[in-house]
Structure formats: C-alpha cells, structure tokens
Amino acid sequence: MIVEHLSLVDFRNYAVAEVALGPGPNVFIGRNGQGKTNLAEAIAYFATLGSHRVSQDAPMVRDGADAAIIRARLAHGERRMQLEVQLNRQGSNKARVNGAAVRTAELPRYAQVVLFAPEDLQIVRGDPSARRRFMDQLLVQRSPRFAGIISDYERVLRQRSALLKSAKARGIRGDALSTLDVWDDKLVALGTQLIDARVALAADLSAPLTASYTAIAGADHEPRLEWALSVSGGDPEEGAEVLADREDEASVADRFRAALAAKRSAELDRGLTLVGPHRDDLLLRVRGLPVKGYASHGESWSVALALRLASAELLRADSRLGDPVLILDDVFAELDADRRARLAGLAEGYEQVIVTAAVEQDVPPALRVRLVRVEAGTIREAQDA
C-alpha cells in the first residue's frame, strides 16, 4: 500500500495542506513544532482511528474550527482509493470511501499503517493501558470487526460499573443485586472474545518479535511476551500479575464467570468492575527479566521498536493490501549509530516509508531519497536528496 497524496483542512496547525508522496522513503524535515508529526498522525489515523499523542480527537481540530478533514489517495497496485474522515469537535465523526459514506470503523479495512514514535516507550515502560491499547489497535488492523467488539465491551463495562456504583451508594450487598447477572453475561460474552484474540495475537507476535529485536539490537536477548489475565485470579492493574495457566482446561469464559463471582463482594464495596480484559496486562521480558524496571534504555527502545516492526511483519504476511505504510516519527535522533543503520536496513524493504526528523543528518543516507521541508505549517516542494 502506498499513500500517493495527503490533503488536510483545519487539522492541527494546518489550515490547508497538500502533500504528494512517492513509493520508497519519504522524509519530512523541519525544526520541532513545525508540523512534521501532524502529517504522520493524519496518515496513521485511517488505520488506527486515533492519535498516538492524544486520547481524544478534539485536539487534532485546528483552534477556532469545528471540524478537521483528512483525505488520502491510496494505491494498492493499479487500484486507487480515496479515503476521507471528518473529525468533529462535537458529535460523531464522518467517513467516506471513494465519495460514499461509510462508518468510521470501516476505514482500517482500506488502510494499514504502522507508526513508531518516541511515545511508544510507554508501551514498555508505562501503565498496562498502553500495552492493551497497542494490542487492541493491532487486533483491529488485522481484523476490523474487533473495533465493534471492543466498543461493545467498553459500553457494557461502563453500564455494569455504573450499576455497581449505584449499588454502593445505596448500600446494597451480596446477592441483592440480581440485575448484575444480566450484565455479567454480556461482559463474559464480549470479554472472552477479546481475551482469546489477544492471547492468540501475542502468540503470533512471538516469532517476528524475536527476529525484529535481534535485527535492531544486534543480539538475541530472548524477548518474550505473555498476558497476565485478571480472570486467572490476579489483578495486573494493581501489580498482582498471575499468568494464564496453560494447563488449565477450563475455558476463558468459565474462568471469567468464576472470577466475577469471587470478586462480587469486592466489586460492590468499591463500585468498580475488577475482572475482565480491561484489567489485563501484557508482560514483556528480555533476558528473562521484565522490561519495565529492569531493561536498559537501549533495550527498552529495541523492544518498543521490535513490537512495531513485528506488527508490520504480521500485517504484511496476512494482508491483501500489500505492505503497510511504515512511519518512523522522530525516531532516529534517539538511537545510536548502530541501531540507526539496522533500522534503516529493515525499513528499506517496505513499499513506502515515511520518516520525520528535525535534523536531516540524523536520518541514514539510505532513507534520504525524497525530502519534504516543513516550516510553520507550510510544506515546501519535495526534492530528491
């Protein structure tokens, strides 16, 4: 897949912007704060339906405007496709494919993008929510139907938690809240699908993660990833990490129901849903030790990069759209010379690579093929390096 043209209206610091892109490496060069990352963010939105920098869409709408519009012309071989999304400050966003209105959730069917940015260090060093978000976004890219499953699960979770808070306020205890059983059924049905898919995805990521880490770090530190599940009895959100027992013959759904029953009193006391995929954590290890708290700065960068590159390899392997667009946002300045060269060698193999950098010399020569200058929201004509 190749993005041939990007058009923005009232997006971030751009009133209007038009950018032509080509196959192979495309490098956006400009000082910090000029709008380079905004271009990368706009392209990635079609694939992830979100930003890697903010949790809400409103900050992406230019100050003083009610909505932002992103348009992209994609090439899949000889086929051309026009995607458009309107991000509204209020109300639902709107989307079009080749001029026809579609649900916004359908956009990832047509665009596959893998973006790596310095913020991705939070995947390995931050809270469990960052790792859950990473895996869920990849799930949606591989199988867009999971966007609906995740949305439905979050809706049921909100409603169930609201019922628990109401019961707590009224002093209801034990089995007196019979209506909770209905929400338990819905939570288990949706949550089981999500847990099973996440566990399968972790297994699929294992081999490409090892290969990518070794390629980036220049050494095999045996990177591993495994889910700690709240349905197995612990609470990863509170540091009680209990790995799934692979020999446990009970289904995830059965363990989910049992865990809900065991936590019923605690949930009523706290007014909070304490079991489910929203409490799980993806455990990352190198050299047999947790990355969070034990890995060096270089190892943490290598794990974060390897996770994104492994994602790209998965998408490349099972996609009919061709290679995903690989975006490296302000990454090279953070890497030593060896990691820069190794990353450039891996990136060269993708149909299209988009790089942002404040300093041109930070980007390895192999990727400095096509340069686009960005200055204060103004895009200068592309030039060959």
UniProtKB/TrEMBL annotation:
One of its GO terms (cellular component) is cytoplasm. It is found in: Cytoplasm. It comes from the Bacteria. SUPFAM superfamilies: P-loop containing nucleoside triphosphate hydrolases. GO terms for biological process: DNA replication; DNA synthesis involved in DNA repair; double-strand break repair; SOS response. InterPro entries: DNA-binding_RecF, DNA-binding_RecF_CS, P-loop_NTPase, RecF/RecN/SMC_N, RecF_2. One of its GO terms (molecular function) is ATP binding. Its main location: cytoplasm. Belongs to the RecF family. The RecF protein is involved in DNA metabolism; it is required for DNA replication and normal SOS inducibility. RecF binds preferentially to single-stranded, linear DNA. It also seems to bind ATP. This is DNA replication and repair protein RecF.
